[in-house]
Design brief:
Low-confidence stretches: 1-48, 228-244
Number of domains: 2
Structural class: alpha+beta
Strand content: 5-15%
Oligomer: single chain
Distance between the termini: 60 Å
Radius of gyration: 24 Å
Mean pLDDT: 80
Number of strands: 11
Largest sheet: 4 strands, mixed
Shape: elongated
Length: about 350
Amino acid sequence: MSHFIPSLSIALLRRIPTPSVAKWGSPVGLGMMLALCLWFVMPAPGTAQEPMTQEQTILFEQAQDRLRQGDVPGAISIYQTIDQSSGGTSIDALFGLGNAYFGLEKYKKSADVAERILELADQQNLTHPNIRPASFKLLGFSLLHLAKKDQDTLRLAESALRQSIALQDGTAEEQRYGLALVLKKLGREQEALETYAPLLRAKEIKVADEARIAYCELSHSLRQDESGLETPSSDTGPSPHLTLGDPINLQDSSRSEGVQKPRKIYAPQPSPGLPAPEGSVVIQAIIDQNGCVTSAKILSGIPEVNETVLETVQRWVFRPATLNELPVIVFYSLTVNFRRG
């Protein structure tokens, strides 16, 4: 039998605590998609745990079918039956139960289940390398949801996520993303940036993109805090986490040969009701090696909307320009068009 381990989507995590609607047609929230659509299966552990009986195995498969059908309460009922019949010692049932509670946004219950798994792993000296990191992961994300702004609960979430990361040799991208969210909520923004930074180089493009958006949003917010009310043409300086050279002007062919242009991945737009004549606003931006717009100024534009457009563009995020597959800073021209509709 295999253990179910929660696999959380970074694309969804960045929107915590915004509720969402799952595929199943009912507003069960963000947690449903996290816990049910995005699991992965851990190989059979061969630990000290007693194997399931044939009856328990059949029940477990029925619970999996219920999940696939979107019947989470039904799956929970079956997991509870297995849990009771095993005397509370079935890791499989507990992981299924914890994930299902998380999916229904019952975060106190999912946290309690994660703590039960950790206690059971200690009592039975279970040795599979994924049990403890997955349990701390479930515990950490459950506490993150529970905490809201409670500092003590956030610190407990931080501890759980750090333990999960440490047990996976620091490579746990989802836990690292969750940790950055915790640190941000704790008011430790610079630590949050440092936690996001390694994710910008993640092999999985979607992971890197989501981390990049969160990183640049936080960087932008910090620059505004440091400079007061940000002036549209101010040079806010480059991001602090990479060694930076002079920006490459992409219009200078003698310097830009071989440079791959940045690719826009996040571009909030000015209000569609913004009054403006037809025309374009052309902006020269500095895009740093993380893909953040660190400075921008108007080259030509529409007086009525220039400032609003400039403020909006400074929140855009890009996959950075590269030279010889290494990220570089560039001057880059951006155009926002207005047409009467």
